Batch of 3 targets.
Target 1
Amino acid sequence: MMLDPYEIRKDFPILKRKINNHPLIYFDSAATSQKPRQVIEAIKNFYENCNANVHRGVHTLSQEASELYENAHEEVAKFINAKGMEEIVFVRGTTEAINLVAYAWALRSLKREDEVLVTLMEHHSNIVPWESLSKINGFQVKYVGVNNDGTLNYEVFENAISERTRIVCLPHISNVTGGINDVKKVVKMAHEHGALVLVDGAQSVPHLPVDVKDLDIDFLAFSGHKMLGPTGIGVLYGKHEILEEMEPFHGGGAMIKEVSFNTITRRCSISWNDLPWKFEAGTPNICGGVGLMAAIKYLKGIGMEAVRAHERMLTGYAMRRMKECEKVRVYGPKDASAKCGIIPFNVDELSSHDVALFFDSHAIMIRSGFHCAQPLHEKFKLKSSARASFYIYNTREEIDRFIEVLKEIAGF
Ligand SMILES: Cc1ncc(COP(=O)(O)O)c(C=O)c1O
């Protein structure tokens, strides 16, 4: 079933804007998505009617806020088919979720002889924490190379996994090429060697159905702001038994059951709270959780299969039309069905920033630069790239306009 982007657009106030006298065309959803009024209303309603701290007060407002916040965890759990909300930790975003795994799990579990496997297509957020930590623990960070089109070579991947591998990290979808990785295959290979798998779902959870049970993922990280929700809220999914065994990331209020001062030892003995609260120290982003719940309800109302089908149609159409422009180089998989709605490209002799600025003068918002994935750009022998990315509110008409402007740029 296809979605109707024209109906959907009515829910997104920002899309009515004009910039430089042109109607806004937003092709930067891989960086952050726009927000429907249902999400904006949920946030407004929370602050106008329910605002209170959670898990602290016995009063009505605190009870209501706590219930909403817990419901938000439940909603996320159902969305990715987790067992329950005990497997859903709210964090600031994908970056913080990955750091949580690195510092709460790897810091304590990994030794000098261990290896962490990451791919060359990783966003920096799945490289930097591992490199930093390896300097403390002495473990090796090993990189799995990619093919010339930025796709994974599963044979190379399998050969890179060994008994030393303790965790395999990979993006479900590359934020540069949009290429979709076969996570299930990698999970099977990793588990055969007793390694855990951390999937960066920043670009997949917003765009296609993701089922953590079916994929048998150990950790999944994603960000609310890329899936219609507000900034500052994201999710770490972890298998119950793994989270249960882990020590907390941050210490403070809400993540403890008891902090009791022993007058003989003159120390405090501390017991952790139940999952997921053990990992949510301090006052959480309550309103962010409420906004994320509204975003998920909105996406569920459309259906993730329909989201995927729409973006596949737009990507195929845009890639076909981009071939009309001689001076335009498109990177990544050539087959639109192996991709989500992300198209990296360059125009001969022009920098990606100049291309993005020219588009901007026509009110078309695209990304330019490294997209926080410099190693993959180095593999492509590129200094940078321009990137157009689509979501549920984009239309073929917008792509036609994009091609018109692209031809103008390429004509210079
Ligand atoms: C694949 C991927 N991983 C991680 C991130 C980081 O997400 P955040 O900045 O929301 O933490 C992004 C953001 O662009 C991304 O695309």
Target 2
Amino acid sequence: MYKKMAALGLALCSLLSVAVADVAAGSRWDTRQLIIRLQDDGLRRIQALQPRQPLPDLRLPDGRPLTLLRRFDGNGVVVRLPESVSLEEAQRLADQLVADPVVAAAQPDKRLYPALIPSDPRFLPDPSDPVFPLGQWNLFEDTAGIRVTSAWDRTTGSAATVIAVLDTGIVDHIDLDSTRVLAGYDFISDSWTANDGDGRDPDPTDPGDGTADGDCGAGIPGEADSWHGLAVTGVAVAQSDNGIGIAGIDFRARLLPVRVLGRCGGDVSDVVAAIRWAAGLPVAGAPSNPTPADVINLSLSGTGSCSAEEQAAIDDAYNAGALVVVAAGNEGVDVTNISPANCDHVVAVGAIARDGSRAPYSNVGAAVDLSAPGGDGSNSDAGGVLTLWKQGTVTPATSYASIAGTSFAAAQVSAAAALMRAVDPSLPPATLAELLRRTARSFPDASCTTSSCGAGVLDVDYALAGAADPTAILGSRVNSGGGCTLGAAGGRFDPLWLLFALALVGYRARKRRHSSPC
Ligand SMILES: [Ca+2]
Ligand SMILES: [Ca+2]
Ligand SMILES: [Ca+2]
């Protein structure tokens, strides 16, 4: 609303006392225009004025004029400044103008932009798509989405940010920018588990983790390759706005692929080494990591209490400045007995379904920090999380899949944390974690409460606002989170994934609405 001033019938004779600042390069919020509402007398004075003529008597301190661009409605005019200024500077100039009795109101003619909709053809819903009609619903739907499109108006990320994905490794994909993929490391010591012919090595490429019946224990059926690391990675950093496939949540962060899971899962001893290495800490036998992670994503779980070795490694990473994000797990049980989600100094992430209800597989309990959409895991609902996939032996991979699980909920929180670090690289893990909790929005369905599914549903837009001004959200208090019972080290981790409807397609079959290859 415009502030009304008393009309004193004076001419537009004020000189502005605020200089127009030189703004080099500028931002997209800069403006060169003001909207001015005039009192009647002022309006009369410019009645005969033509566009691009200077307003009579109204000048900047250095003598430069304000020129008329056009009449606005009623008593309004849009005027042009001699040069673009920041929005803040424009506001100061407008405030000065309001002090003139013939000016009823003034404000910057600020620029507005559409909420970013990336060009990736699978981002938006497409009812004609028989396989993925919902697009990336988890990023934008009102009920269970994480409000990414408005968040992207704040930042789309920074190349200075590093997300470590500790998982089955990485494979090339047409919708993954290889220049954003750091060298990483393969921490799997056992060569059979690793399936790459040796123990630890510098190549985190995922050779597949498929098994035959009985490989993982008597009576346990074999499984196809999971490509779990690729799928988790795609949620966070698939190449965005490139006209191909899906959009990753972070457009610019670099990926640090760290291999810890292979056939039949992985060992705690390898995972804890990888956590320290990802955080930039020394690990015997491995080269130093020149790109310590801002965020470490652990979409893996095992049973039991948080072991001493897990907690120690997580504490080391936390103290080194890395936020450790952990999937709550897919067993549908209380997370108290699921590690490392039950460890201290982690952000444990549960999953909700597309309708906002608790995902039936998601672990729950007081140790869950917040939830994010992970799909409901049923075959009757296409509402899994759309992400990258590999099918067959084609390289780079070209496929996409709709997958459910807390793995993919966690990946969304990791990407959100990376965007927060892009807003402010100095935010420590405790602040990131508390902001994620405190900016989460209320659960849309009574099946999730703050005692079962964490503080709420991930709200990336609000989290980024919090990152820009933490004290507005937190005051001076930063809480580092809950406790953990220490126990014996050991056990193996399983990747968390539920693939349903086998929603896989090769890219050649996907040419439809766009000229892009998928
Ligand atoms: Ca190896
Ligand atoms: Ca390897
Ligand atoms: Ca893409």
Target 3
Amino acid sequence: MYKDFTVHTRIYFGEHALDRLSNIEAERAMIICDPFIVSSGLVRHITDRFDRCGIRYSVYSDVVPDPPVEKVIAGVKAALDDKPDCLVAMGGGSAMDLSKSIRKMAEQLDGSYRPRLIAIPTTSGTGSEVTSFAVITDNEKGVKYPLVAEDMTPDEAILDEELVKSVPPAITADTGMDVMTHAIESYVSIDNHEFSAALAEKAIEICGQFLLRSYADNRDSHARRKMHIASCLAGLAFNSSSLGLNHGMAHQLGAQFHIPHGRANAMLLPHIIEFNSEIDKHSRSKTAYPPCVRKYCTIARTLGVQNLNEVTTIRALIAYMEFMLKEMNIPLSISEMGVVSEGEYMARVDAMAEAALADACTATNPRYPTKEEIVTLYRKLWK
Ligand SMILES: NC(=O)c1ccc[n+]([C@@H]2O[C@H](COP(=O)([O-])OP(=O)(O)OC[C@H]3O[C@@H](n4cnc5c(N)ncnc54)[C@H](O)[C@@H]3O)[C@@H](O)[C@H]2O)c1
Ligand SMILES: [Fe+2]
């Protein structure tokens, strides 16, 4: 069966990338962001430019983390009332995913209405500015749904590192590990191919070189620019190859306990590498390994931790990921986070495992998990 690879989004990047906003063809725009973007003054990067070039705009600042269905409905109403010819999503994955869903649903309700969508990420994490995914939460059911539709992909993305300099260390850590997880899951996905692999490899290399630097100094322009680009590269990679069990399981932790998306991925990552590679700390060398082991070894080489053989290299890769978590003060287990009691967590493990198995991301994991195996992984994550 043939494959295809398309980039739907025009990407503006480099110094003063935001100046692109002075050249867009639009009369009226709706800026979609969270309240922090307004209170911190970040939104003025857009509004000042629009004021100067005479583009009228409204600001819809009702975005919340893990956007729920109700926010999509409210946003669609605001968009259809005003019918701006351009939507500008400014923020992290939550603002971008909400904007993508708003445009899609508004178009479904009024077939003649399809505004241009410009995505301006302010975290280096989700890559949502170039993907056809939007993750929407059903708070009542406690489930996160990854929606996938090619026509949700933003038309333009603007990557300007000035916008990420205000990201505090904890969010830099979480979102940066989201980038790392996107790139790794894309690389070992059963739908991976040479184009996605090239993008993922570069993203992994940049994470290895610049994530800790971004964490240590949030005003390090060079590191910030590199991580912002890595986030987009990883987004392009997984947009084509999809993700895996790591995300399938992380979505449930986000929906049930509101654990930040990147943090949930980061905590799971060492466990998922161990599960997929079938190499644990007691393993000895074998004559044959699952195919993903070779790919994990390439990832280890890219990060500079390849050594003696497959077993020692995979163990080194897992240790590397655990080190990254420790170095950036990301808890290694749910119990360490203190967000939920053991009883409450364990009571929800079965339902989470069921939802993770059904999650669209899990389908492309290199090892097909059973529900029982996912239950075991969730239990291991407790401590
Ligand atoms: N569409 C996709 O392809 C995709 C991929 C991965 C994750 N997601 C989804 O994206 C969401 C997570 O996105 P996220 O990790 O970017 O977080 P987020 O958008 O929820 O933002 C997290 C926090 O960071 C703050 N923030 C954002 N920019 C900031 C800045 N410049 N300075 C200081 N603070 C800032 C926000 O105000 C918020 O409090 C989840 O819902 C996740 O499921 C989507
Ligand atoms: Fe993610």
